[in-house]
Each structure stands twice: as structure tokens, then as C-alpha cells.
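Write out the 3D structure for:
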Amino acid sequence: MTDPRAFYDAIAEDYAVHFRDQLAHRPLERALLAAYAEQVGPSGLVADLGCGPGEITAHLDGIGLSVFGLDLSESMITIARRRHPGLRFEHGSMRELPLAGGSLAGVVSWYSSIHTPADELPDLFTEFHRVLAPGGRLLLAFQTGDEPLHLDRPWGHPVELAFHRRRPERMAELLRGAGFAVHSSTVRERVAERGESAPQAFLLARKEG
């Protein structure tokens, strides 16, 4: 199994083309991002963790948030900077964020927790909690299910990786254990014609205190 950094470095250019304008035909996702942006407001800083080529980062910027992107893959960061030169993108791990405690108004994890093993999720959510200011908002997106999806040789590249699917109720439980109040849990059924193989889940949470 390829490690996530090497996997995304290998497929970055093809991935960026395939998922370009990913929100264009996803009205529910746009609505959830708009609701999140309204909750956070324009004054605080938001981190898009696992930003990939920067599509969600750019969308959040376009709807009024002060946002930057961070990703483990240097190739993804290179594409994000090329496509969105006016925005800030940094290379780094969301498991060990180079940020002071309480420095963010918002964290977005848009399908970026899907490579974290289940037993490491509590530490990941604790790190999200650490960097958020009291009252800070978290938006978490992931595929639902019990069995992981294995991708082997995507677009012909000699790499493979597992994509973990989760149960929303379990993810909400883990967030509460890390000190979050979960305010919204939304599940959208899969759209087969878009190539989706599982329902999609979205959790909105707030750091208590």
C-alpha cells in the first residue's frame, strides 16, 4: 500500500483535472459550505486541511472567508498555487499543525480524514480542537460505510491506497469526545452517474467553551 503523500504526489495532475469544478453540480455541498461560512464569519482565519489542488479553498475565499490551504502532498500544493496564485497554500501535515493553539476560527476537513486509521482519529480531532479558538467551527466531509474503498493504479499510476468510509454517528461520537458539540449531521445518497460509490456525509461542529 502506498503512503498517502506518495500516492497524491503521483496522481496530482490527473486528480486536479478530474475534480476541477467539483462543486458545480453539487448544490447541497455548496449550501453546506455557505452555512459554514455564515457561522464562521469573515473576521477569523480558516484552514482547509488536506486542500489538494485548492478547489474548496478557492470556493471558501469566494464566499467571503479568510482561508488558507494545507496539504501533505507537495505536488498538490504546487498545483494549488499555480491555479490560485492569490491564495495562501502551505505544505504540512494536519496531524501536527504548525499553528498556535486557539489561532483559527474554522477548520475544514473535506474528505481529508479518510486516510487516517480509525484508532488515530481521536488524536486527529484533538489536534483540530487545539488549533480552534473557543466557539470555532469545524466542517467534516467523508464517505459513509463500513468497508474501505481500495484504489489500485488510478489513471495508470503504479500506486494504491485505501479510502476509509465511516459511520456519521461514530464520527460524531469521536468529535464529542474531543470537545466538540455536533450541530448538524447530513447524509446525501450517492449519485451513480457522477461515479460515486457510497453516500456522502457532512458534520458541522463547534468547539465548546
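Residues 192 and 198 are 9 Å apart (CA to CA).
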